[in-house]
From TrEMBL:
<dbReference type="InterPro" id="IPR001647">
    <property type="entry name" value="HTH_TetR"/>
</dbReference>
<feature type="domain" description="HTH tetR-type">
    <location>
        <begin position="20"/>
        <end position="80"/>
    </location>
</feature>
<dbReference type="Pfam" id="PF00440">
    <property type="entry name" value="TetR_N"/>
</dbReference>
<dbReference type="GO" id="GO:0003700">
    <property type="term" value="F:DNA-binding transcription factor activity"/>
</dbReference>
<dbReference type="InterPro" id="IPR009057">
    <property type="entry name" value="Homeodomain-like_sf"/>
</dbReference>
<feature type="compositionally biased region" description="Basic residues">
    <location>
        <begin position="1"/>
        <end position="10"/>
    </location>
</feature>
<feature type="region of interest" description="Disordered">
    <location>
        <begin position="1"/>
        <end position="23"/>
    </location>
</feature>
<dbReference type="InterPro" id="IPR050109">
    <property type="entry name" value="HTH-type_TetR-like_transc_reg"/>
</dbReference>
<keyword id="KW-0805">Transcription regulation</keyword>
<protein>
    <submittedName>
        <fullName>AcrR family transcriptional regulator</fullName>
    </submittedName>
</protein>
<dbReference type="InterPro" id="IPR036271">
    <property type="entry name" value="Tet_transcr_reg_TetR-rel_C_sf"/>
</dbReference>
<keyword id="KW-0238">DNA-binding</keyword>
<dbReference type="GO" id="GO:0000976">
    <property type="term" value="F:transcription cis-regulatory region binding"/>
</dbReference>
<keyword id="KW-0804">Transcription</keyword>
<feature type="DNA-binding region" description="H-T-H motif">
    <location>
        <begin position="43"/>
        <end position="62"/>
    </location>
</feature>
Length: 223
């Protein structure tokens, strides 16, 4: 069973000394630490040092390193989930399933362009079986795929898409996200290191178009 994190209220700041970090700062810096060090390489002592807190802070506040990791992931994915919701669960579902799938993939790529650290963490965790991967699949990846599965099935049934297992759909969509993470390989292939966010979002939208054209093919002629 996946361990769920239990967040405790923040303690009172000391009357003397530096201002303690906020929850926002703790979770944001925690994401950067897990990406740089990896889960196994991020010792409690090193995490505390990078967060600017006492060595027992994580256990006192979150209960364990795994629970802290879950809190970090939930915080990082909070905006992602909120921004994806309007196209993933629209109030008025699109009549055209291809248009809905297009909207979901494009929005996902645009969000990914703005969250390179989160992309790196999720790709790193996808390479090994763990409680953390179970957490990501059960809480985020699985529900997202389940939401688009009916549209994909109707596209397959209508002949617009070839028969596509859901794991193949995931691989087709998630693989190109590596192009937006600013990793060393892409830098060696010529990806600029100082891209501005508008350029990254525009490039993500273009990448989505390339992927979707490959999956859906040309649009059928209008009746």
């Amino acid at each position: 069973m996946t361990e769920r994190h239990t967040r405790r209220g923040p303690g009172r700041p000391s009357a003397k000394g530096p201002t303690p970090p906020t929850d926002e700062e703790i979770l944001t810096h925690g994401l950067a630490a897990f990406v740089e060090l990896g889960y196994d390489g991020a010792s409690m002592r090193e995490l505390a040092r990078r967060l600017g807190v006492s060595h027992n802070f994580i256990n006192d506040r979150y209960g364990s390193k795994l629970a802290f990791w879950q809190a970090v992931v939930d915080h990082a994915l909070e905006d992602v989930t909120r921004n994806l919701a309007p196209v993933l669960h629209p109030e008025t579902p699109a009549v055209d399933d291809a248009a809905r799938l297009t909207a979901v993939v494009r929005r996902f790529y645009e969000i990914s362009a703005r969250t390179p650290l989160l992309n790196q963490l999720m790709m790193e965790e996808s390479h090994r079986a763990s409680e953390r991967l179970d957490y990501l699949v059960e809480r985020y990846i699985g529900p997202t795929l389940a939401a688009v599965q009916p549209s994909v099935q109707r596209l397959v049934d209508s002949g617009r898409m070839p028969p596509t297992p859901i794991y193949m759909l995931y691989a087709a969509v998630i693989g190109p996200v590596i192009a937006m993470t600013g990793n060393p390989m892409m830098a060696k292939l010529g990806q600029p290191a100082d891209r501005q966010e508008p350029e990254m979002v525009a490039r993500a939208s273009e990448l989505a178009r390339v992927i979707l054209d490959g999956m859906l093919g040309p649009r059928p002629p209008a009746p």
